[in-house]
Amino acid sequence: MPITDSFKARLYPQLERITSHFGTPFHIYDASGIRATGEQVKETFSPAGTFREYFAVKALPNPAILKLMHSMGFGFDCSSVPELMLARRIGARGEEIMYTSNNTSQEDFLVAADEGGCILNLDDISLVAKVPVMPELICFRYNPGNRRSGNAIIGKPEEAKYGVSHEQIVDAYRQAQQRGARRFGLHTMLASNELDYSYMVQTAAMLLEMCRQLELELNIRMEFINIGGGLGIPYTPEARPLDLAAMGREISRLMQDFRANYGYSPALYMESGRFMTGPHGVLVTRVINRKEIYRTYVGVDSCMSSLMRPGMYGAYHHIEAPGAEDRAEEVVDVVGSLCENNDKFAIQRTLPKLVEDDLLVIQDTGAHGQAMGFNYNGKLRPQELLMREDGSVERIRRAETIEDYFATLHFEENILAAEK
Ligand SMILES: *Cc1c(COP(=O)(O)O)cnc(C)c1O
Hints:
With 420 residues, the protein is an alpha/beta fold. Helix content is 30%, strand content 24%. Strands 1, 11, 12, 13, 14, 15, 16, 17 and 18 form a nine-stranded mixed sheet that branches. Strands 2-3-4-5-6-8-9-10 form an eight-stranded parallel barrel, surrounded by five helices. The chain binds pyridoxal-5'-phosphate (PLP). Pyridoxal-5'-phosphate binds at residues 56, 58-59, 77, 79, 100, 189, 192-193, 228-231, 271-275, 367.
């Protein structure tokens, strides 16, 4: 999907200035766009009652972005120790952080309990006995199994490794209660990049039904339901955007009905990543080579270490070449330099005829872009820039260097001798 007209109008005229100051490649994010989406989400769900978004840190783990989210009153969904520490470094504390790990280690639990703790979201019934100290407030991730159909990226719930099964869920809360928990929340996460809003409405309905069942069986009331993330964005020009307004309307109605029937309702939490930042970032990269063999290849100065989604999921990312729009078109593969044939940003894509030194803008890289990068083949991850609300551009992460790559290697020997 082409980036917002507003971001385009602020970015494209400045591209040459930005690239000559910072160099290429880079991801650049639009603070105004992220704030506009954040405010829209808050407004959309305000009729539901108490609402809070917990931004999924893994989508875009950068302190400048987390500060922006925090300034809108959002909390953070973390699923590893470094993500927890990152959220705390920008000042998030206690119930502003939800810790949703899986295959959780004892170290995870210890760090989660540090510095005023966080909302602990347990992924399995066996973990009730393994938490070193049962917090007052506890949440479980629910996996409905074959009660729900799955989604292309996460797959069918009954094949997913996550969560507590339907058969175990009441017992899980009972055991947590016996270990001293007094306050409760209920979480699920079933979809990824889902564009059909009614799937999210069904998720909210499923969780509310489960709240009712838990109250009847255990006499406990859920303080919140967390419907997870997974709200999709339209990557292709043809895709229709998720109907957020309808999702807000229908979920708010469910919450209001629940309140009318039972005299209370839980708070509504969501932990969206992609929807919040995905459309508000682009990867800017320069053409460095052209190659004509059986196909025409346009080689750029970044590779899949900057953006895994095309290589990993065959995902489509829209590409524009500002300044080249009027040229004749041709069909090309846009490729990086990794020794992997799936290192292609686009396959058989119609683009204006590109030449060396052209700039390409690869779109919708604001979530699961830089964050999913890796160092295979000695490839380094690029810098990240932020276009701030006043129009200035800030570097919010430097590019990796060879020294970073070498930092975990040692050239001195460290040997455990064979047993005699
Ligand atoms: C990845 C993840 C999210 C965010 O998913 P998006 O598709 O980016 O919205 C939220 N919650 C959990 C537990 C996750 O693993």
